[in-house]
Amino acid sequence: MAGREKPFIEETSMSSEDKGTQIKVGLFILIGLLTVGMMVIYFGRLGEGFSSYYNVKVEFTNASGLLRGSEILLAGAKVGRITNEPVILPDMRGVYVDVRILDQVKIPVGSKFSIGSSGLLGDKYIEISLDGAGAEKGFIKAGDVLKGSESGGGIAGMAEGAGALIGDLRTTVGNINAVVKKLDSTILSKDELASISATMKNLETATGRIADASKQFDTTMASGKATMDSAKKAADELQQTLSAIHKLVDQAKSGSGVLGTLISNREMANNLRALVLNLRKHGILWYKDTNAPAPAGDKVEP
Fold this sequence. Notes:
alpha/beta; 54% helix; 15% strand; elongated
């Protein structure tokens, strides 16, 4: 009997180990499933069911690309979704979509609702641009009807701006073509070209004459410079002569020098006069001036 009980004990211990392993594996799988479920709820739309919203209606002239479930973004943050496909307005002037927005998100009255795109071929969404006045005008309430615009920021806005720019470029190119055609038909005609050619030749001739006149002017300026140098030299010499005359006059006034002596010394003047008369009367080395008689009243002693 003792030999038969030993296998039973081993089988019981092995089954206990298997149960422990199975429990550990089960707990691990359960934790993994709970984690995946929480991630699905947090990152997926299932989590939105636990939040509270208020609904508004947004009207667009053209809501192309908007689908049920499209996101509502405020400054890049998701604040709601579109709850239905675009519905045509009764007056046939556009469509409207129902939008639900989180209760904790308060949007000022006057904010802009526009259609944006995450890329050239990406999903469309509604972008909210806040009004600069803030809460002064109040906040949007549930059931309000808002007017939306088709153009928003991002790639869609850039594409629309590029389209407007291309239109302006086309207009500009058309204007340039019209101007070129007008120039070709008027200014660039044969008669006008001949007139322009003659004008250019006249201008070339006038330029040559101006160059010749410039050379002559340079020659005249050089000659004038030489004349000015000569005049300056003559003026310097005249200044020296005037200085000498001024010196003689000063000597005459002061009685110094030969001229001053002759003017101030009466006796010497008479002697010099007598000498001159005797020389003219009796001559020098048998030469005498016979045509120069002595003045009357002068007494000259030999």
